[in-house]
Amino acid sequence: MLSKIARQLYSLIHKSKLERELDDELRFHLELETARNIRRGFSPEEAARLAHVSFGGTEKVKEQCREVRGTRRFEELWQDIRYGVRMFLKSPVFTLTAVITLALGIGANTAIFSVVQAVPIRPLPYHDAERIVWLSNRNETLGVKDAFLNPADILDFREQSRSFEYIAAWGTLPLNLYGAHTPERVEGVFVTPNFFRALGVQPVLGRDFSTENESDSSVIISYGLWQRQFGGEVNVIGRKFDVGLMANAPDAHPVVVGVLPPGADFPQRTDLFTVSEIYRSGTDRGGSHNWRTIGRLKLGVTIDQAQAEISTLTRVQAQQYPDTNKGWDVEVVPFRQHLFGGAEIALPLLFGAVAFVLVIACANVANLQLGRAFSRRKEFALRLALGAGRWRVVRQLLIESLLLSLSGCAVGLLIAIGGLSVLRVVGPGSVPRLKTAALNPLALGFAVGLGLSSAVIFGLVPALHASHSELNVTLKDSHSLGTTPSRSNRFRQALVVGQISLALVLLTGAGLVIKSFWRLQTVNPGFKSSQILTAGLSLSFADYPNGSPQRTLIFREAIERLSALPGVTSVAAISHLPFGGRTMQLPFNIKGQSRLSKLNEAVADYRVVTPSFFETMGTSLKKGRNFDEHDKQRTPQVFIVNEAFVRTYLSGVEPVGAQLDGDSNLVKGEIVGVVEDVKHNGMEVAASPTFYVSYQQSSTFPIMNFLVRTQTDPASLSVAVQRELQALDARGIVFNVRPLNDFIADSVAPRRFNFWLFGAFAGLAVLLAAGGIYGTISYAVAQRTREIGIRVALGAQGSDVLKLVVGEGIKMIAAGMLIGFLASLALAGWMKTLLFAVSATDPATYISIGLLLSLVALTACWLPARRATKVDPLISLRYE
Amino acid sequence: MRKQKTDLLQGTLDLLVMKTLESGPTHGWDIAQRIQQVSRNVLSVNQGSLYPSLHRLELKGWIAAEWGASENNRRAKFYRLTSTGRKELSAQTETWERVAGAIHLILQKV
User: Fold this and answer.
1) Partner residue facing B52 (CB), from A7, A24, A61
2) pTM of the predicted model as reported, rounded to 2 decimal places
3) What is the DSSP letter of A619?
4) Strands of the B26-27 sheet, one edge to the other
5) Closest CA relative to residue A241, chosen from A292, A159, A181, A322
6) Which chain A residues are within 8 Å of B74, Cβ to Cβ?
7) Which listed residue, of A242, A426, A861, B93, carries a Cα 20 to 30 Å from B110's Cα?
8) CA–CA distance from A619 to each of A527, A622, A626, A675 (Å)?
9) Pairing of strands A659-661, B26-27
10) Which residues of chain B are within 8 Å of residue A22 when distances are taken between CB atoms?
């Protein structure tokens, strides 16, 4: 079979040579025959004639020989292709529209689907990852969400819950790592011994923590740290190194007992795990809410079951310990949702948006093809009448449809490749694995399949229909006055209605996203981030132990040195950088506030700052006074709180002068001032209640983040700042030397990403839908030219004609808009997660989007309608 | 067309062509002459119809063709039987003889 095709192809390629040889061969035969006849005594003319007679028709023989070669079908195919290309070139607008429409649909779809495929659909690198859940505290009365858990509660859940195989917890513990390859500040955590069992991760080297009597000095390191600092050597197990800081263990020289597999990256970017079990400390339930908690569900237990059980337990706790637990509940969410958050929610929506665009594109192509096939009915009828086989006509159409869709696919592939590389570059870094997204062949196949089939089916079906129709009827059609068959028209109208409604859904979605982004841009973060350079300094815990006055001294010296740098206006420092992650949450209560005694378990973020912090950041003091150099170790402890703190815990009470109390000495003291809210945890997150303390009164953290306000470009001071800080302490580690604006840009990046993509897709959808309306109305006008001509001849005015044509369009637009609005409202719930400070059913957005789309649609309608008013009855009646 | 001539089935013509080529390579006109002579002009090949047959056999690989000089020193296409063609010829001859024998028997009996 293959060799036959190969031979046929050979014949096709060498067609002219074969033809020449055939001529030669036959001529040779005739010459010999003529010569023979002459020898028999015939005159040369008679001899030649007889030779031809006995040979039979030369042309017929040649044709038979060609048929033997089997290249006829290829030749016909080639003819069809050439004919198809000619037809396309004759109607370039149709061709371009169809190709671009398909290409956009296929290209955008493939690119986005590739990203969706790369990012969250891939399984997590944990055993039975769907059984892992994230547990967080919430308190609706206080408006607290996603808070960490209290150790006593965790122990209760471990003992009483039957839904969980493990409940594990951890807290953060940044460390300085010395004595390996190069000194480095690493992200560290302290975890309960069952942490890796809950996560479903086994060390690739060494062992997991033992759940009984694990040594405090045991640590497990990440694969990355093993490679980076220990050269991937197997003898790392049992090795001691210096971390310079080990808050929970007296030993600053931990021993490596295990190395994690490469894929395990939870908590994100964590390199070092120390062990710390939770113990009950007497009757104390007021321990800090500092434990981040995950659970592994038992086999067969669903999230809902676990949530129901935990909620029951929290209600029991609230009754048993009303002072500490009233109002608190625990939320159980899938681990994946906790990990990917916004990124995972936005991508399926984007995919939905793109799928809409693809459907609209396919509808457009279908519409174009239907119109075209209909207008060519006569051509086909004529070809059939002239003796073309039905298959030949159908094949012609098939080839044309394929040509069209293949060109669309080719351009679409280019768009997909280009689009994907753009997405990789502009996509936010917070979207995991986006940078590795590659063109997904499945996605391409799917989009191409859809594009191909819509072009082929809608090109072919009407043609098949036409090829079966009675020749007479079709050819006579041109002489009849009637309008065109309504079935095909109605279908095309339905397509347009569908397009408009899909476009409206997309457009309202995009409108909401755009409005969210705009709202986000106008959010006041509570500070002025431009022209600030940040730099972290992490001291060795061993050199600067807790309570050491040296900590304060070195930080003060750092402020002085940095302030002396040329181009620096002011310098401040804070323990936890805005947008740099959560801080410690401490429980406290307020003395003398009986009304608040029930909220004994109030928690707030604890941040250590220098007195210059608020001024340097441009955060305004609302009440009371700022910290000053007189607030020292020996003087009474003072706090400055933010407005969220006052709103949550001190509403209707004079905050300045209020006394805070609690189990920890850190929270005992007086409030002396109130500052405006700083969006420490991100632009979109409401500021959480926070108390600030002066760095001279709290040496809790051996880490400070310096904020250097500069006169010029902050980045230009990076080298100088790095040098000054490093000069202070040889074992101190300087990190995160970046303009503060970068952190903010990172934090709004996912929204910016959604904004651009949704905007682009909605724009595309509107263009395509407008094209669909325009095409359908234009076509209807062309079909009804004769009818319009008659109307005009009978005295209809231009405005009557306009009304007639636009009226038809308005019906489609109105139907499409109605369906679209209903669908948008139905889908609004899905949009919620994507929105910020905008309701998913925001009336202003809906109305303006509706007006915009109506305007575009009416314009698309009006253009062909205006052409219709110019119809000359004389010409139109002679039409065809 | 003074004489009554017998039309040939297509497959039969192929067989005759191969049989003719068994004795050595030759060109189309010569094959036509030989079939006519050997069959004592009973089987008159419509000379033109020989060529599709030749091309078909060539495509099947049972005969091969090459260009060479004819007796009168003209460029002519010479056909020869290939080894697969030879096998095919003997197989087809056998079939033909069996069928012809059977038909002969039937014609005698009835």
Assistant:
1) A61
2) 0.64
3) P
4) B26-27, B75-81, B63-69
5) A181
6) 28, 31
7) B93
8) 5, 9, 11, 7
9) unpaired
10) 51
